[in-house]
Amino acid sequence: MSQKLRSQQWFGKKGKDGFIYRAWMKNQGIPSHEFAGKPVIGICNTWSELTPCNAHFRELAQSVKNGIYEAGGFPVEFPVMSLGETLMKPTAMLYRNLASMDVEESIRANPVDGVVLLCGCDKTTPSLVMGACSVDIPSIVVSGGPMLTGKYEGKDIGTSDIWRFSEANRMGSMTDEALSLSEACMCRSRGHCAVMGTASTMACMVESLGLTLPSNAAIPAADSRRKVLAHLSGMRVVEMVKEDLKPSDILTREAFENAIRVNAAVGGSTNFVLHLLAIAGRVGVDLTLDDFDRLSADIPLLANLQPSGQFFMEDFYYAGGVPVIMQLMKDRLHDCLTVNGKGIHENAKDACCYNENVISGMDKPFKPHSGIAILKGNLCEHGAVIKPSAASESLMRHTGKAVVFEDIEDYKARIDDPDLDVDENSVLVLKNVGPIGYPGMPEVGNMGLPKKLLAKGVVDMVRISDGRMSGTGFGTVILHVSPEAAAGGVLGLVQEGDVIELDVPGRSLQLKVSEEELEQRRARKQPNHPTFERGYVKLYQQYVEQAHLGADMSFLRGGSGSEVTRDSH
Ligand code: FES
Which of 296, 377, 420, 546 could join 509 via S-S bond, C-beta 3.0 to 4.6 A? Predict the structure, then answer.
């Protein structure tokens, strides 16, 4: 081993201090030789029964431990805050930065030489990666894997069907009993959402960044090969400690560019933008919103996965997964180093596509356009995001009158009002769902359509907000408007009946109201979002950055390294 192990600052000490460090660990039945210079590997576990997507992580951690032991390391599993997308209120995103702080401080404060990050449900991946990057000791990600494809009445279903089922239920074409029956049909195995939602997007992101072993993203949670990958990752991180291979060695600007291109090819979630920007901020890579548009502009959609396409993550794995995507795109990807010590081209060189309905070639893509388009204009001075592959072609250029909701409660109260002045050409505008305004930027941007328009057969409309959309959602939905309404953005000045002009090919979003009129509205405007006077939410509202910067807290940018400068023993 080239360098002295960090953990030996604890376990290698003589006298009273060393006694205290070792003796209390020994109450777990650990023999003395475990402390005698083995790499100590933390397993950062987001297991929680309140995060159902990660509820199998104790078993997964055992596989990681087996690998660590086999490679001569000493595993220590520890819990960190777990963020379950479905249950946490007001939104799991509010706590992403808090969880990242927990991860960062837990790693730095403890005697670990390397760390395995067990990630699954949406926010658990970025929060763990952000925290680990700010410490920068050897780190490897093991994702929990997607659920098996849901089966309902002979059809394949996944999380994106929730939106369809709920609209059908609202319209009376699906009974409450049928809706209830479909619940267990959708979530029939361990794992996270089985579509290319945010969790799968995050799993692809960490694989394309080089933070996982190849094939990590798509192996179903219930597939025994998921445990094999966990075991091998445990073995590998021990070697990474010996090689001193850290996140900062892997997360170069080129690695971020690769992740953006792969995300475009797989049709990843819009949440990818926020989380990648936040991770880049932790490692000091200067990434901007424009990079997402520029780098994905010439990448076609290769993966035919819901919500942009037809298939599920299980199919994606059987077709070859991310290594096939990387192999097909090798001319567009930098040959960056990954956690296994090899470059991505070497890792992907033998990848083979087993189902061209699921992963198409570059010459015959599933859709010619993919990725994420960044809009600019007076309505979103610092940018807004749209996912064209999940939107309607006919609405890519659209002019319509605004129907304005001041907040999500206002939307819920009026959307189904028969007297609401709305038609299929209207543009639905939702304010105060941004990082500060909600606070926490919930996934409400893909507002359900007015009942009276659904009854007429309308299936999509232009919707604009400063919030986010679930990675499983779809529609012509403009998100992450920055600056948000609560931060003085023009979005906060939109009034009922204002004309809004959307031009996705021209990357433009304009409010057709004169600057003079906007000035007058600005002068009259009173803050109308909730503010908090104590606790974490106060801290969050005070320091959270706008969406175009990744919505991290300003004081969390960068890292503090792994050194512990004071010693109380
Ligand atoms: Fe956890 Fe979708 S709810 S990944």
Answer: 377
- Residue whose CA lies nearest to ligand 1 atom number 2: 193
Q: Which helix (H) or strand (E) holds 114?
A: strand 114-119
- Are 50 and 87 in contact, with CB atoms under 8 Å apart? yes
Residue nearest to atom 3 of ligand 1 (CA): 85
Tokens of 5: 């192990």
Q: What is the pLDDT of residue 343?
A: 98
Whole-number pLDDT of residue 3:
63
Q: What is the mean pLDDT of the chain?
A: 95
The Cβ of residue 232 has, within 10 Å, a number of other Cβ atoms equal to 19
φ, ψ (nearest 5 deg) of residue 535: 75, -170
Q: Which of 47, 49, 85 to mutate to test the pocket of ligand 1 (most atoms within 8 A of CB)?
A: 85
Atom of ligand 1 nearest to the CA of 198: 4
- The confidence score (pLDDT) of residue 426 equals 98
pTM over 0.85? The answer is yes
Quick check: CB of 223 below 6 Å from ligand 1? no
DSSP code for 190? S
Between CA 267 and CA 495, with CA 457 as vertex, the angle to 5 degrees is 75
Nearest to 275 by CA among 211, 230, 214: 211
Q: What angle do CA 472, 475, 479 make, to 5 degrees?
A: 80
Q: Is the pLDDT of residue 362 over 60?
A: yes
Per-residue pLDDT of 210-226, as tens digits, reads 999 999 999 999 999 99
Task: Kindly state the helix (H) or strand (E) to which residue 130 belongs, with its residue range.
Answer: helix 124-133
The residue among 19 and 565 whose pLDDT is bigger is 19
Query: What single-letter amino acid sits at 511?
Result: L
Residue 278 near ligand 1, beta carbon < 6 Å: no
